[in-house]
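[SOLVED] Need 3D model of a two-part complex

Original post:
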Amino acid sequence: MNESYPKENLARKKVFRRLLSYTKPHKKQLAFAFLILFLATGADLLGPYIAKVFIDDYLTPRHFAWQSLTGLGIIFVLLYIGTALFHYLQIINFQTVALKIIQQLRVDVFNKVQHLGLSFFDKTPGGSLISRITNDTEAIKELFVTVLATLVQSSVMLIGIFIAMFALNVKVASFCLILLPLLFVLMYGYKKLSAVVFRTTREKLSQLNARLNESLQGMTIIQAMRQEKRLRKEFGKTNGEHNHASLKSIKLNSLLLRPAVQVLYVLGLVLVLGFFGVRSFDSVISIGVIYAFVNYLDRFFEPVNSMMQQLTHFQQATVSAERVFGLLDETEMAPTKIGNSASSIQEGKIEFKNVTFSYDGKTDVLKNISFVANPGETVALVGHTGSGKSSIINLLMRFYPIEKGDITIDGTSLKAFSDEELRKNIGLVLQDPFIFAGDVKSNIRLNNRNISDEQIVEAAKFVQADSFIEKLPKTYDEPIGERGSTFSSGQRQLLSFARTMAIDPRILVLDEATANVDTETEEAIQTALAKMREGRTTIAIAHRLSTIQDADQILVLHKGEIVERGTHQELLAFKGLYHKMYLLQQGEVAS
Amino acid sequence: MKVFIDLMWYFRQEKAKYIWGIVLLMCSSFMSMVPPFIVGVIVDDIRLHTLTSGSLFKWLSILIISGFAAYGFGYGWRMLIFGSSMNLAKLLRDRLFGHFTKMTSHFYSKRRIGDLMAHSTNDIRAVQEAAGDGILMLVDSITMGAMVIVAMAAIIDWRLTIIALIPMPFMAWAISHYGNLLHKNFHDAQAAFSELNDRVQENVSGVRVIKAFGEEQAEKENFRVQSADVVAKNIKVAKVDALFDPTITFFVGLSYFLTLVFGAIFVVHDSITIGELTSFSLYLGQLVWPMLAFGILFNIVERGRASYDRIRQLLKVKPDIVDRPNALAKVPSGDIAYRIETFRYTEDTPVVLKNIAFDLKQGQTIGIVGKTGSGKSTLVKLLLREMDCQAGDILIGGTSIYDYKMSSLRQAIGYVPQDHFLFSATVAENIAFAKPDATLEEIYEAAKLANIHEDILAFKEGYDTVVGERGVTMSGGQKQRVSIARALLINPEILILDDSLSAVDARTEEAILEALKRNRQNKTTFITAHRLSAIQHADIIIVLENGEIIEHGTHAELMAEDHWYRAMFRRQQLESFVVQGGISS
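Solution:
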């Protein structure tokens, strides 16, 4: 732990520098914000100085030149109005820049994720990915919006106060510099100690919440197995630990934050009063200077308090930033076009040539797969789970890069097509039809502005989805909730069929669902599937006998290899598996 | 301020801590009266050249002592008041958790876990703030405010005090007003952020569709627009948030201005000295905080009240399934008889089960099949008393299950639910969930019965492997078998397998059923299933449709009839051929 620490620190510095590089596009606005901040601080700090002038030049000598006094008064009030105004503008400007930076960071990381390969998604839990795009960037937002802003504003204020003090009296001001190392020690000590304490508190809190969340989810089991009492005790224990940790952080805050800063303030006062007091024994002291000094000291410690409070958030944000940059630096990209030939898909002839594939580079899930699907033909893939059916589809969709062998479409390697050409011509129907929040229309159109409303209705009619859509209160504009939960699984499938038909692809890739649906919907699905295949080259993971029976070629897969292949008739004559299935089906029809 | 009355029971309970805390807080406030006073005295002494080294030393010593005393008092009241508020949070959290363990599925079906979590985190935090910061601000705004004003009026000049105070109420009002505004805007910003979160979630879950349809660019554009909306909402927050400091600066500045102008007049008329004017301006600085506190107090108290009301509402819900008076503490045993007339979840929902009557001899196995939503799960959950049946009864050994104590009833039952939920703990702890003091042998035995022993040994850390997000990710089939082992560990007389073999392959299913048969002599088993092979060998099979029994008999009997069961059995046989490509693995 100790050994890795300096390295970690170094990495943190790098992360921080990288974060700061995001401010570059906002140079102008930032410069403006700083300018106003300086103005605001300056105006703020001029107040006590004017009071000093008033006391020393007019009040003490009882010299009342009304004209200049009115002028002084007006300046005084104007300064405060100016301070308020400048401060307001300054804060808004800093915040706007900070928020824009975070948006940029968010957009960057989101865009990055869009182009990551599926292999990356396979091994990264969705939850952690989402949390990097939203929660971690939110933590960085805190860094920019609160932490950095406070640090910048407070430092400028502190420097300003010192400048003002030096302008008033160099000797006392340099005396007050003694406070700085004390302050630094206090801050450093607090930062060090609080890092540990706050980390445990946060950990305990997340444990507490995790326990609660889990217990709520598993309450049925807890009750069925009569473990309520034990779980209550365990929760109470974690709750107690959290309480203990929080108490520690209160203790730390009480010892080192405000009360300690207050002591420093008193020390500062003793310094200033002591100095002027001793000097007064042998010389005349300007009362106005004391007034101003005491006032400046009074203001000195509020920025200190705010800075110290923000220190702890700093580390948290850098950890988040590390995670976000880690994702931005990810190299596992989705396969894309290689070379710059402008190939296009015309006929839709698919050929697999000796394709061997492995997800992890160790075990081959596909071994030497070769087959041809001629334009308009249907190839049905059958085989049990893990036989490699899905991998064939994943490769054809170019979700994963092919390392051995090749896949060609119309004689051209899959690698040579642009993304757009592939997506336009290959329509995928997934087993689990993913429904987006929105309405029916938007789920069929999917952001593709080239698809008109008429085409949407046409597509829905084509796959027989229109009958249920028409029955919805708002038909095609019917809003769809979370994951389309208001629709039955059959309806969701029909909707996803319509989505695919709306782009009218040359090639259809089907991953048939096995879900039990009611008879009426099942009929609609079967009719739709048959119509969709018509005139399209189709590669299907088939579960329905109707699909298999109509296929021009059936490939039986086992452990990544094709063990049986042929047409309906050929396999029937072969008297193997297909024959067996056929007989069974005949039996069902007869009974 | 109603929340303080609502929380009075706690303040009473922690009387000593709160009283001492408030006393120390007041002492600490009093200590902060000292420096301005001393400044005034010294300034005047310097001006009049009456300051001696002796008096200077005396005053500075007092100043230092007051500083350290304030430190001690400050530490003390913080620990007492904030500490107590934290204990209140702990207490409420424990109460809520205890309450949650008494609530039934009816309660949980009406509420989302996210909301319950929010009550236990955000609402408790708001109450904690009211009991901590709220008290601090109440006390400080009253006592410190009063002390400063008294000091200014009594020591210096009451007329000047009134004049200097004129802008302060406006400031307090403005701050309180901003607080409300901020709360609303903040809420909008949070909502926008959570929408953004939803979109990202959707994007990540739907990654295949997005890639297949080449939606990446559109998704990026949507995200850009939506994240810009988040920025806009946050800027709105910032615009209110940014008002606080400048407003304070402005009003305080105004007070200083009034002080200087009128103070000067008083100095000229010799009503006050310049030293007094200096201490006055320092006191004025100390008045800012109590005024601010007064403004913030209203927001904290308001939020605390709303949150505490929500928590109380939640705690008020009575558990809807409880023991009857004089319920039997004996563990039920014997034949089971279902005599359900009708069952519905609530009075305004449709009937879920109707005329369910069957008898099950001790040691028999019953298979319950039917379409999704036909009532299979409900039927077995009634036995567990997850819900209570209003019309009808279920008897074990001739006694109604409602006459037993719930804990006795459940002691007789091993339950494997549909959603194989495991806790984030080790595999061994999960299996021993119902009996935490089980020996390793017992755990192994249960795991072997559930056909998961070998799988567990294959994990790197064997039985100590942690399950869940931070540990190993198990397949659905493995999770199902662990949860079967969990139910078998207590060796229950009645075992319920609620569609719990759906994710294991045919061979494993057979092995588990075989092991159950061998090891559960004289013990009763309920199995609900979609796959008929799981119940094919049961002593009794019932087929449910829309909550009614439509077929009833053994496998052979049902196959002889030409109804749903036979058709389904055939179809599934066929499907398994297709899925497996006819190759027996």
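Edit: Chain B is about 65% helix and 10% strand.
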